[in-house]
Amino acid sequence: MALVVQKYGGSSVADAKSVKRVAKRIAEAKRAGNDVVVVVSAMGDTTDDLLDLAAQISPLPPKREMDILLTAGERISMSLLAMATNNLGIKAKSFTGPQAGVLTDAAYGKARIVDVVPHRIRRTIEKGQVAIVAGFQGVNQKEDDVTTLGRGGSDTTAVALAAGLGADVCEIFTDVDGVFTADPRIVPSARKIHRVTYEEMLELAASGAKVLALRAVEYARRYGVPLHVRSSFSGAPGTLVSGTYGDLIDPNAPDGDEQEEDVMEDPLISGVAHDRSEAKITVTGVPDKPGMAARIFEVVAASGSNIDMIVQNVSAASTGRTDISFTLPEGSGPSALAALRDVKGEVGYENLEFDDQVGKLSLVGAGMKSHPGVSARLFGAVRDAGINIEMISTSEIRISIVTRADSLDEAVRAVHTAFGLDSADGEAVVYAGTGR
Ligand code: ADP
Ligand code: ASP
Ligand code: MG
């Protein structure tokens, strides 16, 4: 008998009919002889709707109240799903994040899980019942208040519970058939990836491929939880996220030969991710002398903004001044700008520019470490599409570029084609969801 943690995303439980359909899948897994723990997200776009509602009440609501509001979404879906499962003759009980023992720090809105103590979930399984847990939420023990884990956080709940319970697998059910070489909503010719390492999935998730939340992948890698990303709308096998590139080429690993062969066949590139959630700040006319970059990024960090890419231009010899641009989450823009305005006199820069019409494309692949010419091919594809590159950054297995937001989709398609990733067997299916 296996212990399976299944997570169903919002688009899989968007209405009553979908909730009943998901209940059937849960019943099937249970009747097949498994112990089943389910994590569920809020129905459809409920979380976005709640955010919109709050914005109509208050521009900057207290974070504690915001989290109490948002956790309501998952309470609705968990109880309805438990009702639907019970209707099928399978005993099921729903639990909030705090009831399930998901303990977090106090960072409301983006709390980190510090421990999972799933006593009630264990007891439920021992009784032969299905436990249905509200994703995306936990409890800050110090204050005894509910917290949320950041957007897409139900994935993290599922992985943390799978690790805490020692589950055999964590299945992430969503509205596409797995992890693809690009978002199928933008690239219909994207190909399903059968297996991907934690490292590659981390880079894809960090670069905007929202099919898995970044923290969920981090957690899965830390605790070695294998993830199976698949569709709740079809029976097709999805994508297995497991292992590391190092394990795969370890000749002493079990089935070493076979695995080595697998790696030989692994493509150079795993996929192209895109992200529209960032903005760009440019600080112009910065005096080109030691300590200026340090000061600028000190104040930006103190404003609570996580920066991503940075570009510093060569200074113009005539003026001894330079421009520094960086990207950051769009929502952090106002506080970073305010912090920079406060040090205008001290740093002596000339101007601040804010640009939220940027998009980021990232090409990810473990194979690029050992293959020259990947950047040249990427830049060539973007040039041939007539699209300008505004910023570039790289890691060992990723190259990212910033373009105008309205050119991003076209750039993603051009790069996807240039690396031979287009599928020959028809279009990828997007079963549901609004892509919001
Ligand atoms: P859920 O509601 O199940 O959590 P999400 O909307 O969070 O679903 O994530 C699934 C969506 O992720 C897909 O519908 C797809 O548009 C998007 N996506 C982005 N990049 C990828 C990718 N590389 N592979 C698959 N889906 C992707
Ligand atoms: N409902 C939350 C969100 O929309 C959590 C999740 O879907 O994973 O971000
Ligand atoms: Mg999600």
UniProtKB/TrEMBL annotation:
EC number assigned by the record: 2.7.2.4
Binding site for ATP: K7, Y8, G9, G10, T174, D175, R185, K210, V211
Molecular function terms from GO: aspartate kinase activity; ATP binding
Key words of the record: Amino-acid biosynthesis, ATP-binding, Diaminopimelate biosynthesis, Kinase, Lysine biosynthesis, Nucleotide-binding, Transferase
Binding-site positions, substrate: T47, E74
Pathway: Amino-acid biosynthesis; L-threonine biosynthesis; L-threonine from L-aspartate: step 1/5; Amino-acid biosynthesis; L-lysine biosynthesis via DAP pathway; (S)-tetrahydrodipicolinate from L-aspartate: step 1/4; Amino-acid biosynthesis; L-methionine biosynthesis via de novo pathway; L-homoserine from L-aspartate: step 1/3
Residue span, ACT domain: 281-354, 363-436
Reaction catalysed by this enzyme: L-aspartate + ATP = 4-phospho-L-aspartate + ADP
PROSITE patterns in the cross-refs: ACT (PS51671), ASPARTOKINASE (PS00324)
GO biological process, one term: diaminopimelate biosynthetic process
InterPro entries the record matches: AceGlu_kinase-like_sf (IPR036393), ACT-like_dom_sf (IPR045865), ACT_Aspartokinase (IPR054352), ACT_dom (IPR002912), AKii-LysC-BS (IPR041740), Asp/Glu/Uridylate_kinase (IPR001048), Asp_kin_monofn (IPR005260), Asp_kinase (IPR001341)
Gene Ontology CC annotations of this record: cytosol
PANTHER family named among the record's database cross-references: ASPARTATE KINASE, ASPARTOKINASE
Family the UniProt entry places it in: Belongs to the aspartokinase family.
Function, as annotated: Catalyzes the phosphorylation of the beta-carboxyl group of aspartic acid with ATP to yield 4-phospho-L-aspartate, which is involved in the branched biosynthetic pathway leading to the biosynthesis of amino acids lysine, threonine, isoleucine and methionine.
Protein name: Aspartokinase
Species per Swiss-Prot/TrEMBL record: Myceligenerans xiligouense
